[in-house]
C-alpha cells in the first residue's frame, strides 16, 4: 500500500477537540487550532482550564503544537472541526462558529484535502451548509477536489471510564475513493479502534442528536414522576424500585439537565423537522419539563429553609454550580441559574465550587479559608466528589445540609 503523509489539524480545542488532538499526536504530527488566544496560550503551557486533561497528555509529541495562526495550519491535509453549535436566545440553531470555521477553511483549502465535522448538528448541515459554503467560497468541488465527512462525538466530560479511545465512534463519509477511505480509517483508528464506518453522512448526523434527545426525554419523564411523587407524598425511590422489578423497565435518575448537548440538541432536530412541515412536540415537552426543574428546585430550597426556620437573609452556602458533577462546564447550567437567583435575593448567600472560581456574576468563597460556623445552612446543588469532605464537615458541625435527588 502506498504510504501517504497525513498531517491532521483539529479546529476548536474545547471539551471535544482537545482529546482528539491528544489522541492524534500519538500517531501523527498533529496541529491544534483555536481562535481563542487565551485557550491556545494556556494549552501551550500544558494547562487545560476545563480540568479534563493533564500536561503530559497535551504535550506528548514535540512535533505537534497548538496555534491560533491560520497560516500555520495551511499545510495540513486532514481537518477535524470541533467548534460549538449552541442555540440562539429564541432556541434556534446557532451555526455562527461552524460557518466561521468554514470561512477559515475556505482560505486554506487545497486539492485533496479531507475535512471532518464533529460538531453536533441537524441532518443536512455538513453536506448542504458546510460543504456548499466551501464550494461557493473556493473554486473547489466536493468529492472532486476536496472531501468531507462527519464523525459525531460521544466524549463525556468528567467520565474517565468512557474516554475517547475506549468508546465506539461513528465515522461517516460520502466518497468512494479507496485512497481517501484508507486515510479516513488511519486517522480515526488512531483515535479509537472501535470505528463504525458508514457512507451516509445525514444518518450519522441524525444518530448523534437522537442519542442525546433520548436521554433528555428519559430524564424528563423521571423528573415528572419525581415531582408527582412529591405532590402525592410518595417515596419516589421506592416507586422506581418496584417498577424496576419488571423485566423491561428502564431506570433513569431525575435531576437538573444542563451543558452544551442535552438542552440544545432537541431544538436542532425540531428546527429541521419544522422546516419539513413536521412538528416534534414530544421532544419539546421533555425540554420544557427539564427546564421547569430549576423553578421546582429553587422553590424547594426556599421551602426547606423555611422548614428549618432559616431566614433567606442568613449566611447560606451553595455548593456546586456547574451543569453536572466533576466537570468545570457551566454552559446552560441550571445550578448556576439557581445560584444567581438566590444571590439576587440576598448578598450574604455565597457559592463554593472547586471547579469554578471566575464567574463575574457569582460571589464565591474559597474552600481554603472557609469559615463553616459563619453559615446557617449549606445547599448542595451539584455534588462534586471533591465536595464530600466539606459536606461532611458541615454535618459534623450540625449545620443543616440541604440536598436533593438522593
Ligand atoms: N461538551 C461535550 O460534552 C460534547 C459532547 C459531544 C459533542 N459535543 C459537540 O461538540 C461540539 C464542540 O463542543 P465543545 O463542548 O467541545 O465546545 P467548547 O466550547 O468546549 O470548545 C470549542 C472551542 O472551539 C473554539 N472555536 C470557536 N469557533 C472557532 C473557530 N471558528 N475556529 C477555531 N476555533 C473555534 C472555541 O474557542 C473553543 O475553544 C459542539 O457541537 C457540541 O455540541 C460536545
Short description:
About 40% of the residues lie in helices and about 10% in strands. The chain is an alpha/beta fold and about 400 residues long.
Question: Would you kindly provide a written description of the structure presented here, covering whatever features stand out?
Answer:
- The chain is of the alpha/beta class and 406 residues long.
- It folds into 3 domains: 8-199, Rossmann fold (3-Layer(aba) Sandwich); 212-287, N-(1-d-carboxylethyl)-l-norvaline Dehydrogenase, domain 2, CATH 1.10.1040; 308-402, NAD(P)-binding Rossmann-like Domain (Rossmann fold, 3-Layer(aba) Sandwich), CATH 3.40.50.
- Helices cover 39% and strands 11% of the residues.
- It has 12 helices and 12 strands.
- The chain has helices spanning 17-25, 37-44, 55-58, 96-108, 125-137, 178-189, 201-231, 236-243, 265-275, 281-307, 334-345, 388-396; strands spanning 8-11, 31-33, 65-67, 78-81, 114-117, 147-150, 169-173, 195-198, 316-319, 350-352, 377-380, 401-402.
- Helix 7 packs parallel to helix 10 (281-307) and helix 10 (281-307) runs parallel beside helix 11.
- The chain is globular and about 75 Å long.
- The chain starts with 7 loop residues before the first strand and ends with a strand.
- The structure holds nicotinamide-adenine-dinucleotide.
Amino acid at each position: 500500500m502506498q504510504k501517504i503523509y497525513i498531517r491532521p489539524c483539529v479546529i476548536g480545542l474545547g471539551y471535544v477537540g482537545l482529546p482528539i488532538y491528544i489522541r492524534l499526536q500519538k500517531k501523527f504530527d498533529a496541529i491544534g487550532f483555536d481562535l481563542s488566544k487565551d485557550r491556545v496560550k494556556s494549552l501551550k503551557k500544558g494547562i487545560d482550564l476545563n480540568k479534563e486533561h493533564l500536561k503530559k497528555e497535551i504535550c506528548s509529541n514535540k512535533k505537534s503544537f497548538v496555534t491560533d495562526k491560520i497560516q500555520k495550519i495551511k499545510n495540513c491535509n486532514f481537518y477535524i472541526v470541533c467548534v460549538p453549535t449552541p442555540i440562539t436566545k429564541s432556541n434556534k440553531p446557532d451555526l455562527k462558529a461552524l460557518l466561521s470555521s468554514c470561512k477559515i477553511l475556505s482560505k486554506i483549502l487545497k486539492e485533496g484535502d479531507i475535512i471532518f465535522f464533529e460538531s453536533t448538528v441537524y441532518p443536512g448541515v455538513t453536506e448542504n451548509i458546510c460543504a456548499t459554503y466551501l464550494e461557493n467560497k473556493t473554486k473547489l468541488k466536493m468529492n472532486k477536489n476536496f472531501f468531507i465527512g462527519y464523525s459525531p462525538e460521544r466524549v463525556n466530560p468528567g467520565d474517565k471510564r468512557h474516554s475517547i479511545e475506549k468508546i465506539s465512534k461513528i465515522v461517516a463519509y460520502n466518497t468512494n475513493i479507496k485512497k481517501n477511505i484508507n486515510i479516513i480509517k488511519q486517522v480515526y483508528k488512531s483515535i479509537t479502534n472501535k470505528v463504525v464506518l458508514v457512507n451516509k453522512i445525514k444518518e450519522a448526523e441524525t444518530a448523534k442528536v437522537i442519542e442525546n434527545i433520548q436521554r433528555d426525554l428519559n430524564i424528563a419523564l423521571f423528573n415528572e414522576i419525581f415531582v408527582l411523587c412529591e405532590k402525592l407524598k410518595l417515596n419516589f425511590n421506592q416507586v422506581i424500585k418496584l417498577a424496576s422489578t419488571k423485566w423491561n423497565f428502564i431506570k433513569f435518575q431525575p435531576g437538573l439537565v444542563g451543558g452544551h448537548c442535552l438542552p440544545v440538541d432537541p431544538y436542532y432536530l425540531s428546527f429541521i423537522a419544522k422546516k419539513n412541515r413536521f412538528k416534534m412536540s414530544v421532544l419539546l415537552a421533555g425540554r420544557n419539563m427539564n427546564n421547569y426543574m430549576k423553578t421546582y428546585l429553587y422553590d424547594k430550597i426556599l421551602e426547606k429553609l423555611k422548614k428549618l426556620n432559616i431566614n433567606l437573609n442568613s449566611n447560606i452556602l451553595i455548593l456546586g454550580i456547574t451543569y453536572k458533577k466533576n466537570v468545570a462546564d457551566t454552559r446552560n447550567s441550571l445550578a448556576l441559574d439557581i445560584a444567581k437567583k438566590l444571590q439576587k435575593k440576598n448578598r450574604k448567600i455565597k457559592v463554593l465550587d472547586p471547579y469554578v472560581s471566575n464567574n463575574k456574576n457569582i460571589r464565591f468563597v474559597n474552600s481554603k479559608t472557609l469559615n463553616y460556623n459563619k453559615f446557617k445552612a449549606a445547599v448542595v446543588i451539584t455534588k462534586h466528589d471533591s465536595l464530600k469532605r466539606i459536606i461532611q464537615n458541615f454535618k459534623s458541625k450540625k449545620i443543616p445540609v440541604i440536598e436533593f435527588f438522593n
